Amino acid sequence: MMKNKMTRRAVLIGAMVLVSFWGGWVVKARVSNTRSEVTYDNPPLRGKDQRYKFISPLLACGVLGNEEFREFEPLKTQLKQMVDKKVYTKEAKTISIYFRDLDRGRRVAINEDEKYFPASLLKVPLMITYFKLGEKEPAVLNERIVYDGSFDVNAKEDIGPTQAIQAGRSYTAEELIKAMIVYSDNNATKLIFDSVDKNFLSEVGTDISVYSPAPEGSIDVMSAKYYSYFFRVLYNATYLNKEMSEKALDLLSQSDFKKGIRAGVPFGTQVAEKFGESTIYAREGAPPIKELHDCGIVYFSKGPYLLCVMTKGDNFDNLSRTIQDVSELVYKGVSAPGY
Predict the structure, then answer these.
(1) In the 8-state DSSP scheme, what is residue 51?
(2) What is the greatest pairwise CA distance in the chain?
(3) Cβ atoms 229, 210 nearer than 8 A
């Protein structure tokens, strides 16, 4: 699919990717036709440390293999049937699914390379950037930042935060990051973005090799497969250190978005996730396109798995129900005998 370019006006009208129009910096998927997924005959070797609840540090990769993972064939068939039905009944225009067994490195993917506007999903790489800076300069997380109320980015959102920072108050950077991740507060996000060094932000993107700066006034897009790398580097603790990786996933586990992946798994199941939503006015007079995404790690009793669902349609309720249905079907699949 060709890369979509939106005007700054369309971005503002749609209240889209916050960090993209603050300084012209956007996230960009590095899609290469030669880059392939790595799968393994033998599972990766991981460190075991009872101090950590959310991470499983990667010590060594498994042996490269080309197995087709027959145990996932029924799940992939069922997911494909669900996607086809929902598109046919117009509950969604496009649905992408990326599932990965984190401990075994095995996956199921449907339309995983379809491109979407990541919107609030970009708060995760912004958090990673600040925590990386915190590794180098620990005091930066305790620095206080004042919200003077001169802007209110939350007013543009269809799904606003359940709790928001208050004008006239100061917050530590760590408190703002929590508001950004747990409540998806866009005002907190703007304060964090404005305070971070943009060169360092770009360096982090280069380090992870997933995102990089793009031209002013344009927005790049991202696929479910490529966005999943952010959660993988956190779970594997391969970029941030163990403490910061754990802190990041702990915050993501507190996210108060309940309509997506969380709604499809049994109550009490631990999920570390981030959602993103946007309304896109592609051309004047045309109906807006809604996008809703939810990506995260489900800490299933048999082994954690990563699930990323990205959707396009014309109704947020239908899209959130679609994500819930996908999550429920995946959970049933991994719960089946023989998995």
Answers:
(1) T
(2) 58
(3) yes
Tokens 């941030």 sit on residue: 240
List the alpha helices (DSSP H) in 15-122: 18-21, 73-88
Length of the chain measured in residues: 339
Residue of 42, 56, 39, 58 whose CA lies nearest to 109: 39
Give the span between the Cα atoms of 58 and 42, in whole angstroms. 14
In the chain, what are the domains? 8-121+218-335 (3.40.710.10)
pLDDT, average across residues 191-212: 80
What is the spatial distance between Cα 28 and Cα 127, in angstroms, rounded to a whole number?
Answer: 16
41 vs 145: CA distance, rounded Å: 49
Amino acid at 9: R
At 14 the pLDDT is 33
pLDDT tier at 197 (50, 70, 90 boundaries)?
A: confident
Amino acid at 76: K
Q: How many other CB atoms are there within 10 angstroms of residue 158's CB atom? A: 12
pLDDT higher than threshold 50 for residue 68:
no
In terms of phi and psi (left: phi > 0; alpha: psi -120 to 50; beta: otherwise), the region of 78 is alpha
**CB burial class (10 A; 0-12, 13-18, 19+) of residue 16?**
buried
- Mean pLDDT of the region 86-110: 95
* Cα torsion 215, 198, 26, 187: sign: negative
